[in-house]
Design a protein that fits this description.
heterodimer; A: alpha+beta; three-stranded antiparallel β-sheet; B: mainly beta
């Protein structure tokens, strides 16, 4: 088979198109994440600090990763796992008999990612914390 | 019928206004809805506990909206404080409509 210059160019364009494919997928994830954040904050700005997100640096098993969130004076905390099939992990709200605005649980992580916690404070402001967790074996099935 | 047993750990006696730790565990597979059956290739439908709440004598302590990212056999630990003796009520809501409840007495002394 003789390759003409035109063929090579067409192949190259095809290859470039293939390479482009993962991009829209990543953009969709970002959109889902932004939507989850917006649903919680209503579009309000978040500031850093004021939230403590405790998670292991390296999680061997993504099926059960112990995490703890704590935010003094928070009424609600949203925890996001941006690289999971569904970015939102859980939302916890504190009632009048809550002793401290903190909660611990175990979550699934599909892969290495920046866990994000957003706290809604009593005064209506929002605070955010991030923490990278390396995951050796992903959870979430598949 | 699934055999779902909720378990809670609450101190038997506390001081009024003292902050104490409550631990809860419920056995549930928490099927995420993202997994596939290896033989048929079909997606296994989601079935998780989607809501948890803890109340004390009609007042809320904590409520939690849960997404499929919560691990199987959900474990939740949190802090509470009470001023008088009473009953703590724990409620888990399943996707299939079931509601699991558990109560624990708390004595202030």
């Amino acid at each position: 088979m003789n390759l003409t210059r035109r063929d090579v160019m067409a192949l190259g364009a095809g290859g470039a198109a293939l390479a482009m494919l993962p991009l829209p997928a990543a953009a969709a994830d970002q959109a889902a994440l932004d939507a989850a954040i917006k649903k919680f904050t209503g579009g309000a700005a978040t500031k850093d600090g004021g939230v403590k997100l405790t998670a292991p640096e390296i999680a061997e098993n993504g099926n059960t990763v112990p995490i703890e969130v704590e935010a003094e004076g928070a009424t609600e905390i949203l925890v996001l796992a941006p690289n999971n099939p569904l970015p939102s992990a859980f939302t916890v709200s504190f009632g009048p008999l809550s002793g401290a605005s903190s909660a611990s649980t175990r979550i699934r992580l599909a892969g290495t990612q920046d866990l994000t916690a957003i706290a809604k404070m009593k005064d209506g402001s929002f605070a955010m914390a991030k923490r990278t967790v390396k995951v050796t074996i992903g959870g979430c099935g598949g | 019928m699934k055999n779902i047993v909720p378990r809670v750990k609450v101190p038997a006696t506390v001081k009024a206004g003292e902050v104490f730790t409550v631990k809860t565990l419920i056995n549930h597979p928490m099927v995420s809805g993202f997994g596939k059956d290896k033989k048929t290739g079909k997606t296994i439908p989601r079935e998780i506990i989607n809501h948890f709440s803890c109340d004390f004598e009609g007042q809320n302590v904590i409520a939690m909206e849960m997404d499929p990212a919560i691990s199987a056999n959900p474990y939740i630990e949190f802090q509470a404080k009470v001023d008088k003796s009473g009953t703590m009520t724990f409620t888990w809501k399943d996707d299939d409509g079931s509601v699991y409840t558990k109560t624990a007495p708390v004595k202030v002394g």
